[in-house]
Amino acid sequence: MKNISEISLEKIDSILEKSKIELKKVFGKNLKKIIFYGSYARNEEKDGSDIDIMALADINRIDLSKYRDKISDIMVELSLEFDLLVSITEINIDDFNNFIEYIPFYETVEEEGIELYAS
């Protein structure tokens, strides 16, 4: 018999793997990095916590916004399938790297995040 923490770990692993597959489909060769961050990545989740994922792509900001509907579809699909809120943020990789020391959110993701994919 599995305990709750084992089930949660399996669920999280499945969410992360499926998100990686779907983000690769959406961004193709332009996907440069996927980072799992936030309370689940730190093992500090509580009731109501979401799974936080950042996709870093080599696509300019204006064009990146055109992917928002596809990313929203992935979030909804995964959230419904696993009964757990999934949040995906897409950011231009150059913006992330250039502004990491100026934007505390980027710095936190870099320091605490878990890299799921890099190309």
Shape: globular
Q: What's the arrangement of strands in the largest beta sheet?
A: 3-2-1-4
Count of DSSP E strands? Answer: 4
The whole-number mean of residue pLDDT values reads 93
Task: Give the CA-CA distance, first to last residue.
Answer: 38 Å
* SS content category: alpha+beta
Compute the gyration radius: what is it? 14 Å
Order of helices and strands: HEEHHEHHE
What are the segments in which pLDDT stays under 50 over at least 5 consecutive residues? none
Strand residues, percent: 15-25%
Oligomer: single chain
Which percent bin holds the helix content?
40-55%
Overall description:
The protein is α+β, with helices and mostly antiparallel strands and 119 residues long. Helices cover 50% and strands 22% of the residues. The chain is built from 5 helices and 4 strands. A 4-stranded mixed sheet has the order 3-2-1-4, sandwiched between helices. The chain is globular. It holds the Pfam family Polbeta. This is Polymerase beta nucleotidyltransferase domain-containing protein. GO terms for molecular function: nucleotidyltransferase activity. It comes from Haliovirga abyssi.
Topology:
Elements: H1 4-27, E1 31-37, E2 51-57, H2 61-64, H3 68-82, E3 86-92, H4 93-99, H5 104-112, E4 114-118
Helix pairs in contact: 1-3
Pfam families: Polbeta (PF18765)
Organism: Haliovirga abyssi
InterPro entries: NT_sf, Polbeta, Type_VII_TA_antitoxin
Describe, in short, the structure shown.
It comes from Haliovirga abyssi. InterPro entries: NT_sf, Polbeta, Type_VII_TA_antitoxin. The chain is α+β, with helices and mostly antiparallel strands.
